[in-house]
Amino acid sequence: MYTAGLDIDTRSYFTAATMIIAVPTGIKVFTWLSALLLEKRATSNRMTLLQTAFILTFAIGGTSGIVLSNAPIDHYLHDTYYVVAHFHIVMALSLIYGIFVGLYYTATYALYVSSASITGWCTLFVVSSFSLFLLQHYQGYTAIPRRYFLHADASSHALATLCLLVAIASFLRILVEHTYSALSLMHTFVTKKKKVPTATLR
10 Å Cβ neighbour count for 38? Predict the structure, then answer.
């Protein structure tokens, strides 16, 4: 936006307006932290991991947005991987973490089959997805433009691709685990319903 030829007054307005957004966002983050710390209901390790990862991604994405609100810095980081990482860590990654928290929360009420492997795949997904977007922030700081395949720093591209593949594989594995647990739960309900004897009329 700042590279579109706006005058100084308009750029100053958008800088101030974008920075003011950080106030309600910070309040939201601290509210979520207090809710997480004061939660009386017992939660599993994977649920706590995903809740903490959700809050971290939202906080990191908001902080990178404050960095981009400054017009001179935005000129430097325009059309780089930093902008891609900022947008997707807020709009995609935190959304996925929130969906998984909701799934695990409802799974405790629906009595899903608890699996220790889900915790391992969740940890792998969180670590690989965080590493992917941290690498993209680093690539943006080094002014690597997006939509380019070949760069002088090819090692960070290869590492980011590896993190992406690991994140996709662990994400699909978590979905498979959830689908299997839901189907086994439905099968248990159906078999129990068939075994209930019908009352005979006298």
Answer: 7
